[in-house]
Amino acid sequence: MSEIHLLTTPNSATLWWELPAQPPALYEVWLDGRPCCTVRCTHVTLEDLVPCADHRVQVKSVGEVRFSTPQPKRRLDVTAAPYFAVGDGKTMNRAALQRALDDCGPDQVIYFPAGVYLTGGLTGHGDTEIYLEEGAVLQGSGCPEDYLPRIPSRFEGIEMECYQSLLNFGHLDHTAGPNCKRVRIHGKGTIRGGGYPLAWGTIQSERERLKEEWAAMADLVRTCENENTIPGRVRGRLINLSNCEDVRISGLTLADGASWNVHMIYSRNIVTDHCTFRSEGIWNGDGWDPDSSENCTLFGCTFYTQDDSVAIKSGKNPEGNRIGRPTRRVRVFDCRSAFGHGVCIGSEISGGIEDVAVWDCDLTNSQCGLLVKGTAKRGGGVQGLTVRRCALPRVMVCQVGYNDDGEPGPRPPVFRDFLFEELTLTGRYQDVDGDGSIKPCAPVELSGFDVPGYELQNVTLRQLKLPGDDPQNIRLQHCRAVSLEQIECT
Q1: Catalytic option among 256, 307, 308, 360
Q2: Is 435 helix (H, G, I), strand (E, B) or coil?
């Protein structure tokens, strides 16, 4: 039997479980001894429950869980006294909304009715709940000054002071555990950042700040992706979770951060479900980025992202090797890429990445499908990756040349113990970074490192459906112990 994970509100319960080794065609769900529903996916939400009631849920062939729905919390309406926030999309509400966040107690919920609430960076604390009604938009401004003062953060594997994100929880400390617990951000509304204007304004401001140092940095700049890489690293995110524990983000549209949308650093027990991510036209517009974090779960989400839909990270050499905090136990399931790079691991993997499972995802409309990437000087690695029952353009494990600045780590990364099972690979990807057209690609392309002992090791490809019978459909380089079982060419 699998463990059933539970997320409750006063009127609902969301349950999810791991994909069994031999999953049934349908899961039968029983509520309080009676048949309730059947589902094909490994999660279910039971609605129209009543507060403060005891329940027992059985998922046949999976397990059973008992729970009580919680008591409703008292609303802190941001438009009412003493806050008087104005949802006209023009009035700056940063001070009013920060006061509401400061006031929020464990038995209260910050409530946004329909409207557009303009703000700069906001800082929350533990035991905070935020609810956005349908039609409510928490709108970040496009002015970098509205996200000051800067805060300790981490971007592309390097700790530094960055502009605040739109929502900020926790305080960054790689030597310690969580300092912000029990946060819930949910509803039917939208959290939208300052997008391109904020991103570009931040880059220009940082370049101006660095202008006296820029000439001395010429050699370093030449090793970067482009001239905006270094000034672009101080951009805030949409939601920043540093040293957080027990956070759930659900039901919302999350859009247009100045860079990544949801970034969790040195955190654990983070769940994001039933959200829509949008960042078309945003450079580095990742959707959901676990970074040196544990027990991170994502399901029921749709992505329209200019960069990685999911980007799993753990620091960059040599700092990431020294800090040595891995990302562990990441679960991504029942998600869809409508536009974006897909599910990517790396290239910042110096702290190590362990135990990642992806299942029941449709990434057909993505550029990379499933991608594991690193550079030879990165160190760390990826161990224990399982990808099952997914539709993808391709599966790739490879070296990349970008984001390769800085001093080298002590050794190449270690890539090992991968299982790819029951995958439909189209061999055609969407050129997200180009003209958006559909282009051909090798469905399977696996490469380790050209250093003895650092080849890609222990890989199983089982029950794959590949287009056509071209021998170039599967490309292997610097690999050891690769098993191919039940490969079907259509």
Answers
A1: 307
A2: coil
CA-wise closest residue to 250 among 47, 488, 20: 47
Instruction: Kindly report, residue by residue over 424-472, the tens digit of the pLDDT.
Output: 999 999 999 999 899 999 999 999 999 999 999 999 999 999 998 787 8
- Bridge partners for 90 per DSSP: none
Backbone dihedral region for residue 410 (phi beyond 0: left; psi -120 to 50: alpha; all else: beta): alpha
Model pLDDT for residues 187-222, shown as the tens digit of each residue:
999 999 999 999 999 999 999 898 888 777 777 777
Active site residue 341: yes
Active site residue 55: no
Q: Are 164 and 145 in contact (CB under 8 A)?
A: no
- Neighbouring C-alpha atoms within 13 Å toward the C-beta of 13: 24
Q: Return d(Cα 376, Cα 393) in angstroms, integer.
A: 26
pLDDT in tens, 39-66: 999 999 999 999 999 999 999 999 999 9
Q: What is the pLDDT of residue 403?
A: 67
Mapping DSSP to helix (H, G, I), strand (E, B) and coil, where does residue 270 land?
A: strand
Q: How far apart are CA 289 and CA 252, in angstroms?
A: 17
- Identify the active-site residue in 341, 360, 404, 478: 341
